[in-house]
Amino acid sequence: MFVKIVLLFFCSLISFDVWAFETLAPIVKKVMPSVVSISVETQEQQDAPEIENSLVFFSDGPVFLGSGFVVGKEGYILTNNHVVEKAKKITVTTSAGKAYDAVLKGTDAVSDVALLKIEPEENMQEVVLGDSEQIEAGDFVFAIGNPFGLANSVTSGIVSAVQRDIKESPFDDYIQTDAPINPGNSGGPMFNQKGEVVGLNTIIFSKQGNALGVGFAIPSNHLEHIYQSLKEKGKVVRSTIGVKLKETDYEGKTALIVTAIENESLALKNDLTTGDVIISCEGEAIKSKRAFETDISWKNPKSEVVLSVVRNGEISEKLVELTAQETEQKAKKKEPFKPENNEGIDIKELGLNIKDNKILYVESLSEAAQKGVKAGDKIIKLNGAVFTKTEDLKFYINESLSENKPLHFDLEDKNSESYFVELMPTAEE
Question: Do 211 and 180 contact (CB within 8 A), yes or no?
């Protein structure tokens, strides 16, 4: 009898903790209008990328199916970069079944996030971004997406772990979940019990491409910075304190020692030098080099943080200004531009060589190459106007740089198939 009572009590505890309400339906009904399905026609067939043969992005071959959610009532939608990076045509379908053509406003390959824009007839319902810092292992979450093309599908589970590093980028900080997430869920939202978005579903662990109860989402606290950067600049700018660091020990606790100066003028301004030991940031203890650099990277350039620094045995507080990282993309574009011939005009800001409206050369490391632009493709329109003279590009490039807005190209490939890309010029140095 005692055993039965204990078991009954234990089961009732489980029931109360995990299922705090009888049904998800009211919350799902409330947030569903802010979730969209995405269909992407790609320029060429490609296999779904894999990470160490087991971690795979959600994809479906030459036609990608993904999900997204509304972050701006005017029609701004966040999704995954890998869903749309090879797009020839992007179609967004609302939960009510209304389809729209979408324009790619910006991408960030490092975080695997892209921003789309559609033109709805009226304001759309935005999601509410929750505080992912409050998420803990064991918390209840649910996802809405477009798995296998089955729109408006709802799955649920718990948070398995937080701050998960799967070695995809220097800034990995994923939320791990056991909620069933399948191909087509890419870019869809992960909600908490309040109906707030706490993550953007990105990767699953699988050997077959189907859910095995191990999925990963980008924390919502990173998404606001990504959204604003993509909306304003078409790319994500990350910050640094301008020095190289190495983990060390200070009085039995993790600290960071400055091993080299990467930005001399900034280091001088911030009064940082080699040998300095950082023991806290904003009053918080240092967890690790990676955690510190990740936290700094998500802050805005020119913003400031307070560091506790030990120098020659003395501890002082330093107000340190941040600066934009010299990203891999920017570093790559510093490489010499090498067109295959001298027939056309070199457009170094875009990594292109163009004659009339025909692209003769695409720099292999340029944004244009990453988005599928190829030699032989033709420019049909630029920013909505018929493209006639290569010389006009300089005017549009200067306008783009001054307004921090990408250029919109309507192109035609060798097979007379139409597609579009948005490219952000890089100022010549």
Answer: yes
Q: How many residues can be counted in the chain?
A: 429
Question: Is 410 one of the annotated active-site residues of the chain?
Answer: no
Domain that holds residue 206: 31-233
- Please write down the HEC assignment for all residues of 370-401: HCCCCCCCEEEEECCEECCCHHHHHHHHHHHH
Q: Which of 304, 326, 348 is the last residue of a domain?
A: 326
In a domain, 301, yes or no: yes
> Which residues, other chains included, contact 395 with Cβ-Cβ below 8 Å and sequence gap of 6+?
none
CB 106 within 8 A of CB 146: no
- Annotated catalytic residue: which of 37, 160, 186, 366? 186
181 token code pair: 């997430």
CA 146, CA 152: separation in Å to the nearest integer?
6
SS3 265: helix
112 is catalytic: yes
Residues 227 and 267 in one domain: no
**How many independent structural domains does the chain possess?**
3
Catalytic-residue membership of 101: no
Q: How many CB atoms lie within 10 A of CB 62?
A: 14
Catalytic site residue from 82, 222, 225, 408: 82
94-104 confidence digits (pLDDT tens): 999 999 999 99
Which pLDDT band, with edges at 50, 70 and 90, does 170 fall under? low
Domain boundary among 273, 299, 326: 326
Q: Which of 108, 112, 173, 410 is catalytic?
A: 112
pLDDT one-digit tens code per residue, 180-226: 777 778 899 999 999 999 999 987 765 544 555 678 899 999 898 89
Look at the block and give the residue holding tokens 């921003």.
Answer: 115
Q: Which residues contact 160 (CB under 8 A, 6 or more apart)?
A: 137, 176, 177, 178, 214
Query: SS3 string of 169-226?
Result: CCCCCEEEECCCCCCCCCCCEEECCCCCEEEEEEEEECCCCCCCCCEEEEEHHHHHHH
Q: What is the pTM of this model?
A: 0.64
Residues 69 and 211 in one domain: yes
